[in-house]
Amino acid sequence: MNALILTGSPKGRDSSSFLLGSRLGEALRNHGVTVRDEFAHQALRTEEGTRRLLDAVDASDLLVLAFPLYVDSLPAPLTRLLELAAERRTASASPGGPLLAVLVQCGFPEAHQCDTAVGICRLFAGRMGMRWAGALAMGMGGQLGGGFRKLPGGGRNILEAIDRTGESLATGGDVPGEAMALFSRPLVPRWLYTLFGNLGWRVQMRKNKARRPLAYRPYAK
Ligand SMILES: Cc1cc2nc3c(=O)[nH]c(=O)nc-3n(C[C@H](O)[C@H](O)[C@H](O)COP(=O)(O)O)c2cc1C
Fold first, then answer.
1. Ligand 1 test: best mutation among 42, 65, 69, 140, most atoms within 8 Å of CB?
2. Is 83 close to ligand 1, i.e. is its CB under 6 Å away?
3. Which of 31, 39, 71, 219 has the most CB within a 10 Å radius?
4. Phi/psi of residue 136, each to 5°?
């Protein structure tokens, strides 16, 4: 099996999306899958890069989209790539497509914030004739910045969810339901995440010499 793990964060290798995606890559490799990593933002910068990435999508048996939630949806270059892949597929449709799985995380505390983006990917799979394998979705993505080791409990739930998913996908299965549940479990109590989140914003405001209050909403009535 050939898997393509496509990171959709502009932060590339420094992103939480890549941290999660590369861990899934490791799990897949452990089960004999050949894994290739690509970055949507990088590839789309040139025509050659775009063509190579679309070829890689076509050649994969398993496509994994690893991305951050951006305004309830996918980062724009990843959306663009899906559009291009869909155009190409209708032009030269080969029957039976790869399996599509998603790894998505967001800054808000709740995993369900990712539902719309997951729905978009599921519809994309359907229109492309791909088999939808499911999604691992989590909130509190801001916590992943320091790597798994710095997470409470060493990120045990996340690692276990990814490992179980890798095992299942490697044999053509779906993302297991228990893995989805484990992955979406809050890493810390919601109040604690919000407290540190707000603190982080205040530090950034001070650094950038922003004078308006944090709750300033000039366009709200
Ligand atoms: C432009 C932009 C839009 C975002 N939109 C959302 C959003 O709608 N909901 C949310 O919960 N987080 C949102 N976030 C937060 C990111 O999903 C979050 O910071 C994520 O952990 C970044 O992951 P990465 O390191 O893989 O880029 C947004 C971030 C940016 C930069």
1. 69
2. no
3. 39
4. -100, 120
Separation of 32 CA from ligand 1 center, angstroms? 33
The pLDDT of residue 91 is above 80? no
Joined tokens for residue 50: 């775009």
Question: What's the CA angle centered on 143, arms 141 and 148, to 5 degrees?
Answer: 105
Output the residue whose Cα is nearest ligand 1's atom 12.
Answer: 107
CA distances from 153 to 3, 150, 158, 205 (A): 30, 8, 10, 31
Domains and CATH numbers, the chain: 2-187 (3.40.50.360)
Token pair 């089960």 in the structure block, residue: 31
Residue for token pair 């709750």: 215
| Ligand 1 atom nearest residue 17's Cα | 26
Q: How confident is the model at residue 89 (pLDDT cuts 50, 70, 90)?
A: confident
